[in-house]
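fyi for ur records
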Amino acid sequence: MVDYIEQKKSIKGWQKSLLKWLGIVVCIVCIACAYIPFESYYGDLLISLRMPLLSFTVVCSLLLMLTKSKGVALLMLLASAVGLGTLIPLPSSSQLSSQDTINIKQINLSYTNPFIAEHLTALKKQTWDILILQEFSDLNRHLLRPFLTQADLFGYREVEGIPYGIVVISRLPIVYRQQIKLDGDRLGYIKLRVLFKNRMITTYVAHPPSPRTRQHWHNRNRLLASINASVLSEKTPWLVAGDLNTVPWSSYFNFAQANSCYSQANAYTSFTPFDFIDSMFTGLPIDHCLFSRELSLDNLSVTPFKGSDHKMLSYALGVN
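which gave:
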């Protein structure tokens, strides 16, 4: 009997030890994946999950604190907490002296969203200057007619089509419009100039491919690099808006000369793959607004949008 009890205790001790080392290994692997140094396809995908990976490491470290490995657990907890801290920027305290602001709303609708008519009816009554719609199906073109007498539209004319699923409805005059093609009608972005109080504001709207395959990843990076080159030579105040399908901490999110909604406001997530759980640590910030130094973020709100797995970004940009 004594031998049996001792054997049972030994098994339990071995199981606890195994779970402890398994937890330590999982924490180390998660931190390593979050900061993998290789700029490869799979490396970039892992880096995009840095926040969920580090969040999981925090939980795992707290569980390890219940074991006798408190020192290792504390080290893991500290490393992951510091990492999370670098992903959540402090909101900017800078204020514009100018009171002139452009109010913008942007949303990835989802091609299969059954509530488009309902949303457009509600949006028509709201206050905004520019409304950017992505994944807008050509089958819903007729829903844009009510805006024709109240705004300039890009994407409604038959000759324009709805390139890359992008529609822009502007209550400011659109004085210039161009579809920039990198690979015919399969890859490219939209360049518009709107007139705001006698000033030209150049707006780039893009929705690069989601990096579900290596080719899509290359195309996304190519498109982002093209936009970056364009804004570097832009002479007017400019804005880049859209579902860019990349996170701000990716090395391919290379807009060093720009401010962004993510860095100027409280951190947010705009894409949530799971309906049942929506938090800062389970979503991804892949919908962006980037803007030149002549513009400044006045306010930003990120709100759920029925029928889409993306959220709507509503923000005001002050103009110096």
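The chain has two domains: 2-87, 101-319. thats all i got for now
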